Every structure is written in C-alpha cells, then in structure tokens.
Amino acid sequence: MTPRRHAPKVVLIGAGRVGFHLGQALFGQKINITQVFSRQLEKATFLAQKISAVGINDLTQVAPDADLYILAVKDDAIETVGRQIAEICAPEGLVVHTSGATPGAVLAGYFRHFGVFYPLQTFSMEKTPDFTQIPICVDANSPENLDFLQSLAQKLSPLFYHISDAQRAWLHVAAVFVNNFSNFMYFIGEKILDEENMTLE
How many C-beta atoms surround the C-beta of residue 157 within 10 A? Predict the structure, then answer.
C-alpha cells in the first residue's frame, strides 16, 4: 500500500444510480474524488460538480496516478471497462467494482490490486439514501487491500462486512428476492383494496 492511501485519490467510473450516491457519500466524508467518468459527459459533469471533481467521457482520460478506481458500472460492463483502463491505471492502484453478482476475480487478469465494494441497497435517483443504514460488503485480493476497503467502508457506515465472492452472490440473490417479493406483495395488497374501492393512501 502506498502512503497516499491514507488520503486516497479516487476515480469514480460510472455516474448511474450507484455511482451518483456513492460518490456523494464519499465526498461527504472528505474523500478526494478527482474524476467522474460517464459515457454521457452531461451525467459525468453533473455529478462531478457536486463533488468537486472533473467530469470525463473518455476512458483514455482516466488519471494514471489514482489510489483507488471504483467501477460503478453495469455487471456486464465490469470486465470490459477493467480491460480498457488496465494499461492506464497506476500499478499500485486498487481497482474495485460495486456489483453484488459479479466476482471480484473478474478483475484478476488485469490488475495487481483488486476487490469489491458493494453497498447492499437498491438505489434510486429520486431518493437520497442514508448510508449509515446501508450494509457495505467488501472483499479484496490481499489482507492489505481488504484493510483499506474496510476502513473506507467504515467512514460511510457502521455496517461493513468482509464477504467472499460466493457469500456475496447468495446475499445478492436473497436481497433481490426479498425486494421483489415485497414489491409483489404490495401490488397484490393494492389490487385487493382496489377491488373494494379503497386505496393504500
């Protein structure tokens, strides 16, 4: 671990729901996010302006000297994006993704330091989440990198856990089931009340 990791420079790749809220939460804890990437420059700039960063829409512009690269992108884009930035990132840079369903090992072929930083939450652009209530699951390819990710998670939430790839996959399935089942029950309840000319409001 380089000394800079005590005050890490972070590049956030992805300005969708996860990246949008995670970026602001990290910024709120005085974490220095230098760049925000999105293929849509307007989205990158919108988030970047909120967290004193620079918005970019070209992966070749990614800073080569960051301490941490967070891939907050769709599951099927993680490996592709990782491959694209592999030649740019600092050799000592730690690269993590935020997916619950994708193993951290998907990054193993491209980086010396890699891991997972997974907030167990369904995010929406309309609602600001309370990160102190969100479990954050972390994993990494070395004890040193794991310690760093745990210390970062602790800044956001008291609910941080070391979860392996296998455990995280099952946790993700359970979370999806609970969330969707709850929505389905809400739909059924609303339908029943509607048939009786009542509402949930």
Answer: 18
pTM beyond 0.85:
no
Domains observed in the chain: 3-164 (3.40.50.720)
How many CA within 13 A on the CB side of residue 116?
Answer: 27
The answer for residues whose C-beta is within 8 angstroms of residue 16's C-beta and 6 or more apart is 38, 43, 72, 73, 74
Which sign does the torsion angle of CA 163, 1, 158, 25 carry?
Answer: negative
CA distance 164 to 80: 22
Residue 186 in this model has a pLDDT that exceeds 90:
no
Nearest CA to 99 out of 165, 9, 25, 179 is that of: 165
Encode pLDDT of 134-184 as tens digits.
Answer: 999 999 999 999 999 999 999 999 999 998 776 765 565 665 655 555 555
Q: Which of 54, 142, 139, 52 is nearest to 92 (CA)?
A: 142
Tokens of 2: 């380089």
At residue 163, φ and ψ (nearest 5 deg) are: -125, 130
